[in-house]
Model the fold of this input.
Amino acid sequence: MCGIVGYVGKEQAAPILLDGLSRLEYRGYDSAGVAVYSGRDQGLNVHKAKGRLKVLSGLLDGGAAVEGTVGVGHTRWATHGAPSDENSHPQVSRSGKIAVVHNGIIENYGELKAFLQGQGVPFTSETDTEVVAHLVEYFQKDGADILTAVGRCLRRIEGAYALGIISADEPDRLIAVRKDSPLILGYGDGCTFLASDITAILRHTRRASYMDDGEAAVLTRDGIQCYDHLMQPIEKEICQVDWEIDAAEKGGYEHFMFKEIMEQPEALRRAVFPRIRNGEVFLEDFALSDEYIKSLRNIHIVACGSSYHVGMVGKYNLEKMLRLPVEVTLGSEFRYMDPIVDEKTLVIVISQSGETLDTMAALREARRRGASILSIVNVVGSSIARESDQVLYTWAGPEIAVATTKAYTTQLAVLDLLGLYMSRVLGSMPAEERRAVLEDFKTLPEKLEKVLSCKDGVQYYASQYFNRDSVFYIGRNVDYALGLEGSLKLKEISYVHSEAYASGELKHGTISLIEEGSLVVALGTCLRLFDKAMSNIVEVKSRGGDVLALTTESRAAEMAKTANGVIAIPDAHPMLLPLLGVAPLQLFAYYAALMRGCDIDKPRNLAKSVTVE
Ligand code: F6R
Done:
């Protein structure tokens, strides 16, 4: 998705903007641009280029070619208008004096464009953003200052937006406004920053404020003044961001995705260990009372993509632990259904970025229906975290690769811990079993290290199968949910067509797809259903398919008698096996994509944080 960086200070702005934009490349984009105020003679210097940031950076000699100490930069992920130099941001007003960068969508831009065209304003791009630049200028006709004009503009525009605006007439300030699209303010020494994602400015400052919906801010070298939706001055809390800069760097690895896969044992330690004390689960600042938990009639999990797959595993595990009905719904579907959600429903929202628009919309709909919202989020201070009644952070650290890995594992671990906590309150699970799971939980990071140390074996299987046209993932129960994630990982980064099926569904139609040369990844970690998994493997093999199987060490030899290849993970409590089983699937997708020469960290058409519907 689009990225925004802004800087007001004493240093040359363009190199800072380009560096900040490079930290946002992981989010996915198709063009980039900067606007810098270069003094009275030159005014705003605007440079834009379709394609990778290095194209723009090359044109500007890494930014050295552009004078000026105030500016905004943008990486664009096309929504309105194809990727092109003209459609890239910043978009500029007719006089060239106002430059705007924008994340989100101005929904009523058509009507505004018609109005402005009626006023004789010529448009040079197909973007919705261009209307903002012209509209701000239009509202300055009576000599209004930039902040007043932006305020007037906000009353006319509808949709989602994070905006960074500079004006050649007031060149010592940068205006920021936010509605339904994240924006962060950074406080440096003699300088201030604007960013849509904290990683863009982490090299310069760790002191940040998170803008709320409807707020505006004026950034100058000396500080930042924030305003509420009525343009009344407000004070914002300044937080200390504790993410390590190194965590957002590749640190010698070829790809972020591989680094993040390998970081999983450590991420699990961070997510789990502080939350197990004296043999019980301890959840920080947990505000859901025992009475409330006992009053619950159902649980509804909402999320998108891999986070949704976490919810799918969670459904099996939570229902087992809590004996409460658990429904899992895609964020993009939730608000268009008529979900059975009220004050007796706990809605669990799962999101790595905390900014996914569909998930956020579901959260708001659930709140409107009276439910309590508990979110499991990675990015501290993100919109979903801030709008929830209760947040459990995953503490996975920055996740840069578009394909999620360590966020998936930590989300799942936190969801399991939540289930264990609630099962104690509800008395729905024998205490000995709960303690046994918790004991096993503590051994997971080490077991995961063991799984990852066998990566060469997975690489070998990837080398055997990376050029297959179609791959099917099958499994039952949590193995089915795990298959959904394995399949998504493979297709999103290697572009190999893949599907996941509940094994029992094969005979209801999908087995017709199995033929000579099909690869089926058979997941058989759920040992109570092991025999069923074996039967499905036989079914596939007898139709000419190849089977790569995943099971635990205790059953690997048995599976190897039938499957073409077997990947084994250590035995653990059945509820925890998906936390180990997902790693080989991630590695398989990674190596397959590597062998197919794909852009692993930035797969085509995808974005890290999906802030449009
Ligand atoms: C897949 C992936 C996506 C995200 C989805 C939700 O590897 O990363 O499917 O899981 O876009 O994102 P978050 O968790 O940020 O809400």
